[in-house]
From TrEMBL:
It comes from the Bacteria. InterPro entries: Cro/C1-type_HTH, Lambda_DNA-bd_dom_sf. Gene3D superfamilies: lambda repressor-like DNA-binding domains. Residues 24-55 form the HTH cro/C1-type domain. This is Transcriptional regulator. PROSITE patterns: HTH_CROC1 (PS50943). It comes from Rahnella variigena. SMART domains: HTH_XRE. It holds the Pfam family HTH_31.
Amino acid sequence: MANPRVRTYSRYTRKAASLLSGLIRTARLENKLTVQEVAERAGVSRGLVQRIEKGDLKCEIGAVFEVAVIVGVRLFDADENSVSRHLRQTEDKLALMPKSVRKAHKEIDDDF
């Protein structure tokens, strides 16, 4: 049996996940939604919603975003039109950039 890989996260990442999970839980409670109701609407398990609300960093990001939208947490502090505009701008910028990054190959000088 393979050993599970232990992943470490920066303090900033852990705090950001904790903030988002707290916002999700607060919004769910303010909207008087049960964990089961949110899970059904998101098409995920009740346990996954509970893990999201605890800030578990191993949760699928799509599920976290979907739960956030369902309970009314605004992602990126923007409305849907603003997110769409930023997405188009990012796609336009990415279209101008190289498809991949490669390190320059250094010639080895082995003349002694």
